[in-house]
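**Archive record**
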Amino acid sequence: MLKFLIKFSVYKKDILQNRYPMKRLLILLSLLLSFGVQSQQLIPLNEKSYLDSLQSVIKSNGANTAKANASFLLSNYYRNIDSLLSKKYLENGKTFIKGDDFLSAKYNFYEAQYNLDRNKGKAAISYQKAIKQFSKFKNEESDLFQAAAWYSYGVTQKDKEGYPFLVKTILEKSIPLAKKYENSRNLGFLYTQLAVILTYNAEFKKSEDYNTKALQILEKHDPNSPELFFTYLNLANNFCYQAKGDEAKKFLDKAETLIEPHPDSSVNAFYYYGKTLYYITRQKNPEALPVIEKGIYYAKKFNQNLLAQMFYFNKYDILRKLKRYNDAKNVLEDVLTEKSLALDLNNRKTIYKQLSSLHEEMGNTKQALIWEQKYSKLNDSLNTENVKLEINKIESKFNAAEKERKIATLNSEKKQKELEVNKKNSYLWGLSLFLLLVLSLLIFLYIIFRKNKKISEQKINDIKQKEELSLTKAILDGEERERERIARDLHDGLGGMLAGVKINFSTWSASHLDPEKDAEFYRILGQLDNSVSELRHVARNLMPESLLNFGLETALNDLCEFYSRKDMDIDFQAISIEKNLPINIQLNIYRIVQELLANAIKHAEASSILLQCSQSEKDFFITIEDNGKGFESNREQKTKSMGLHNLKNRVDYLKGNMEISSDSQGTTINIELNIDGD
């Protein structure tokens, strides 16, 4: 499990940093899309018969249990099609509970289903209630509902905890419950969902293995199920992303056989999306366009807005390849206006980049520059790593055991001390009464003496401290103002001019130069492009825009990403950092961390750095550890390093303390800051 989660995070980082953002967006969103719709429980392919049968049950004079179940299933069907009707059926089912604990558990489950795409927080609470209630019943239906609830709960936590948490939930919670019943559709569904995540992370062989496990169950026991339909589509998509068109076609045809008798089913849109990917894989772009139009028809019919926008995005990509630039531009601008895809900042950044390059190909230099500037501004401030590494299972268990051991030790020590104190108290009372009279006079005199001395010393120290802080503040404020001015001049002035020059050169060379004959010119043009990127790196280092736009935590995360490289792993942990800190305090903390990282990378020769930043009300704590070569314990006193001098000034400015511990195994620095702002 640990090995899988580590590999999972590495593959995801590789995909997010793909050099071809258009391809990344199409693959990533199509996978997330197919993944998101299958959020337990799937609707039968013959939707009309299914809905008619449920309506008949509600209108009949049957048992309350059957009517409640039918109402809940109808609520689940309409939850993404007609929210008002879905809510109506959910509340209708609630009226049939009448003290039935199992039906009450089902109500919480389907209430969570209703809120899954509206309010993930509410959905998560309802799923946990349902799990707790179902756990009281020991039967197959209860176990399968628990498996479904655990999986969907993982989906609610995906944005906050990341995909590793969802994978752990599937492997450790859902699958063990469903595996009690080897031939259940639920187990096949869970295998398929795990396969989708593996495909997303380029683990194509492992994805194929889990999809095959699903096929072995579903083809034999549920040959006409929607779970089998989506398994076929997932296998087809998996092979498409590997450019294996023949294998993809086999499973796409099987999916078509299942869906063909049901032209009114809402899942037709997903079939046409899979068919679109197949034509793109085969580079049959003209044939893909009518398939996309069919997919758009079904997506709009069933209010599948995100899927409709994905069709439009593929349509744009094909039109551009066919050199129908005006049509492609109109489609992409419509996608940006509709906002379903553009809500995600990474998607919006990709769309800006596509519009810039498209206008450049069309010869619209001015428009290309406008979109390039939007892309550049968003790219500079965007946190390119949206998912943090999950703490692995082994480490969690170790930490939990370690905490329990410490608690037990502390409790034991506490009891022992209480016994010793009680024993000593009986002896001390008599002696204390005698000494009290003698000491009272001495203490009184001593207090007066110390009080007068402290008052004098405090006045002197206060004056010195105010002078030092005033001087330090003036120096630091001056430095930051100058950094901000230089960064703004570099980014907005010189950076914009160089970007414009690059675009003008690109436009001119396209019509005047031959790439083969004038290779030297294009090499120089590449150097100009690299220079623009380096200039933006310098500007961001001088005055990080992510700090001003998104706060301290995001800026520190960006800083760690900036210093990371193949032979240097930086693990950043942020704990309870408030977003409303004064900007000057945020900036000083940022500079302190920047200096710590720079020193560790420059001098320590380390391969791993742990950086932890935490806040407790008006106290801010910074800890940095590395596995480098270390240095002499008194080096910080002997050295005349400007970096350590600036670091000490900033720590003193925030009324903080700094401790340094170093040996041949590495270096640890602990800093405690007062961020009261007084």
Observations:
- The two ends are 49 Å apart (CA to CA).
- The chain has a mean pLDDT of 80.
- The CA atoms of residues 150 and 382 lie 32 Å apart.
